[in-house]
Amino acid sequence: MSDPILVSTIPDFHILYPENVHQDERPGYTGFIVQSPFLLEFAKAIRDDWGYDFLTSVTAVDFFPETFEVVYHLFRSLGGGVLTFKVVLPRENPKIDSLYNIFPGSELQEREVYDMYGIVFVNHPDLRRILLWEGFAGWPLRKDWKEAYFEEESKPFSSRWPNGEAVRSESANPFHANLKYPPGFDPEKWIPDGEDALYMGLKQPENSDGMNTDYMIVNLGPQHPSTHGVFRMAALVDGETVVDLKPVVGYLHRNHEKIGERNTYLQNMPFTDRIDYINAMSNNFGYALAVEKLMGIKPPERAEYIRVIMAELSRIQSHFMVTGFLLNDLGAFFTPALYALKERELILDIFEEVSGSRMMCNYFRFGGLARDLPEGVLKKIHDLAFNRLPRKIDEMDELLTENEIVTARCKGIGILSAERAIALSAVGPILRASGVPYDIRRADPYSIYDRFDFDVIVRYHGDIYDRYLVRIEEMRESARILQQAIKQIPEGPIFEGKSQYQVKVPPGESYGRVEGPRGELGFYVVSNGQPNPVRYHIRAPSFINLTGLQEMCRNEKIADAVAILGSIDIVLGEVDR
Amino acid sequence: MGIRGIIKGLGITFKHLFETYSEDLKQGPDRYKTAEGIQDRLSADTKGIFTVQYPEEKIPVPEAFRYIPFLIYDELEGGERDIRCTSCGICAKVCPPQCIWITRSVNPETGRPIPKPEKFFIDIDICMNCGYCAEYCPFEAIRMDHDYEIAGFDRMNHHIYDMEKLLKPASYYAKTHPVQYAEEETARLEKEAKKAAAQAAKAA
User: Do B64 and A268 touch (CB under 8 A)?
Assistant: First the structure.
């Protein structure tokens, strides 16, 4: 249980490549600064020579009015901490080499950075806007871009009650002066060319069998019951077989990160609930970790235990739900889904009692929790963890695992090999179902996860069935962690001192990551000492897992694409942010 | 392809169906529309169907439950209201969607501000029910309400709550948040006793 965990050290790249790589020496910052022309060579070297084979996050920071910085986070799939490096770009005409050929998992993320900052990634295979539409004016995450309804740079606003009178947001009509178009853009005469660009991106293979057949484009979604929200797949099909497929996202986009940069640090906490609305507790956890890292504080012991209990309960209910809804996608209309929701209800009851809300928990604070467990809740969690949940997980297992229809639809479908899973930056159950035993709770332990005895579940076929099995087994492991945590939880405070509404965050950057139910959920926060973050980025696991969708769906039947999407377990609130 | 797995699964589905009726027979009419029946369906060893038939049955909300904020006033003798809010504005500052607007009262004679709100608005369309205002209020003046049945027929006219609509007596608060209220009352009484003792010591 208490085996020493070997954490690899990060090599001194600034000594190895003295001309092109420098240490980031600003106070509060870590990692390296790489010269832009050296980027490709450096990326190749750290992948091939130093084992940093997993590109987890690509994002950018706007240090208005000086420079842009593109920030890369990588880790070794064998375990250990995160390597950060940055490339500094001018704000005028920013251009950088795409890492697509070295890390294909950067595809969607580079598109997002382009969409938000206008940074052009040279040699990217399909550089289009991803979350916004083609007629959108400007690059929204640049600091000099102002949104519709713009009030002030940062909260708290002072203008909400001019002359002591309330102004309602209704009166700021979106159809008057709040729409902006690019110069020369007339919406009346606009012919959407985005669709053409999308369809051109679908690759038609050489016709090899000599028959004169034609391909057809099928759009699944945006409104389609199988897509778990508003999500669209443009599929090129040959008969029933998917030849190529592209995800189209952004229908639920609200620029969460821009909102986050206007908010104070504490004000972001309830907003994190709304990224992945299925498990708010994990989101709270990740954000609290990132800001606590910056502030250099740690919560008291009891708070750590409650955090772990909540995160694991959250994982169980999320896995229950995705298992149920995967079966919905396979055509088992709502019986397994409702059995899953039933258990989820009992867990949400606990969340409600503890935090005040079933889904939008807003329970974590920097350095502790909002409130202690009310009386009787621990008993309820105890009943669930020791009795009901293990029983019901077994029942779910019995109901589905050997079902012939499930096995026929799931085994051998949507295969992602271990190498491709790593290359495509797949995380969570998808990565582990492909045979890579990577779980942040073990690989780079945070909070108090190093105290618990649990197994990292891994399967080796990389198909839908294995992803399902990984989730079932993970629920059992979560129940195990819960049982240990309930036994060990100490009495004591849940917060040192009094919770403050204005937290002092020293300048610097931090990347906090947790193993959410969908995989690595990371929060990248940059502070300049002001009450509002300069940068607030979310590494959303289900968004980045979609990078692999194309490859999983190729040469499968169109009906299986729906099941594959169900097995990825996307939450659109998180995909579109 | 066999059918063993399917039959096994059907057995479980049948068990779920059967349990609903067996529980009905075992518990009799008490299973529905009684507080015990609802509690039983929320417990960890509930069996069979466990839906609660809203609005005939309602799940009791826990004390921590948060919905729209409300302002508390203490009832004085003679029906006067002592509003706890001092219009310090912390709730408006901490509010993530910035939905609270306060105007401070001014003494009409001297022109000096009085620590009482003259106007207090909450735009409940924007409110995200996070509970920060209640959490960080230093005067225990604003708390989260439990009344979740506020659906209305119009979009425009009644969604900015003014002070009249927001004010509720402390007795209401004591009913919805018994544990928290009792804690705060004991803390307050202790503080007052200390103050009185200090004053008595000073006088002596």
Answer: no
Q: Mean pLDDT in chain A?
A: 85
Nearest-CA neighbor of B106 among A164, A536, A64, A138? A164
CB neighbours of A416 closer than 8 A, spacing ≥ 6? A424, A426, A430, A434, A462, A548, A551, A552
Nearest to B64 among A353, A383, A388 (CB): A353
> What does the pLDDT average to over B140-164?
84
| Range B178-201 burial, b when 16+ CB lie within 10 A, else e | eebbeebeeeeeeeeeeeeeeeee
Class of B69-200 in CATH? alpha beta
The encoded tokens of residue A294 equal 């910056």
Range of A424-438, B77-91, B114-128 with top mean pLDDT: A424-438
- C-alpha span between A525 and A176 (Å, rounded): 35
Kindly tell me if the per-residue pLDDT of A31 is higher than 90.
Answer: no
- Chain A: nearest CA to B199, how far in angstroms? 28
Give pLDDT tens digits for A147-198: 777 777 888 877 666 665 666 665 655 455 556 677 777 777 777 666 777 7
Does residue A138 sit within a domain? no
Q: Which of B3, B61, B94 sits opposite A404 (nearest CB)?
A: B3
Q: Which of A154, A403, A486, A536 to mutate to test the interface with B (most CBs of B within 10 A)?
A: A403
Q: What is the pLDDT of residue A70?
A: 92
Q: Which pLDDT tens digit goes with each residue over A105-121?
A: 898 999 999 999 989 99
Interchain CB distance below 8 Å, A161 and B44? no
Q: Is residue A498 part of a domain?
A: yes
Q: How far is CA A127 from the centre of its chain?
A: 21
Token representation of residue B118: 């003259």
Confidence label for A1 from pLDDT (cuts 50, 70 and 90)? very low
- Is the Cβ pair A398, B12 closer than 8 Å? yes
- What does the alpha-carbon distance between residue A568 and residue A555 come to, in Å, rounded to a whole number? 18
Nearest Cα residue in chain A from B136: A501
- Which of B6, B121, B132 is nearest residue A405 as measured by Cβ atoms? B6
Would you kindly state where each structural domain of chain B is located, as residue ranges? 1-60, 69-200
Which CATH number do you get for residue A427? 1.10.645.10
| pLDDT of amino acid A198 | 76
Distance CA B131, CA B122 (A): 13
Whether A324 is covered by a domain: the verdict is: yes
* Closest chain B C-alpha to A379 CA, distance in angstroms: 10
Q: What pLDDT was estimated at residue A171? A: 64
C-beta contacts of A524-529 below 8 A and 24+ residues apart: A524/A57, A524/A59, A524/A71, A524/A73, A524/A290, A525/A287, A525/A290, A525/A291, A525/A294, A526/A61, A527/A28, A527/A294, A529/A505
Domain count, chain A: 1
Which of B13, B63, B101, B163 to mutate to test binding with chain A, by most A CBs within 10 Å of its CB?
A: B101
Number of helices (H), then strands (E), belonging to chain A: the values are: 20, 17
**Chain B residues in contact with A335 (beta carbon < 8 A):** 13
Q: What is the mean pLDDT of chain B?
A: 85
**ipTM (interface pTM):** 0.89
**Measured between alpha carbons, how far is B202 from B204 in angstroms, rounded to an integer?**
5
Encoded tokens for A501: 């509404």
Domain containing A503 equals 256-576
Nearest to A270 among B118, B125, B130 (CB): B130
pLDDT tens for A341-383 read 988 989 999 999 999 888 898 899 888 888 888 888 888 899 8
CA nearest B137 in A: which residue?
Answer: A501
Residues from chain B that touch A340, judged by Cβ atoms under 8 A, are none
pLDDT value for A220: 85
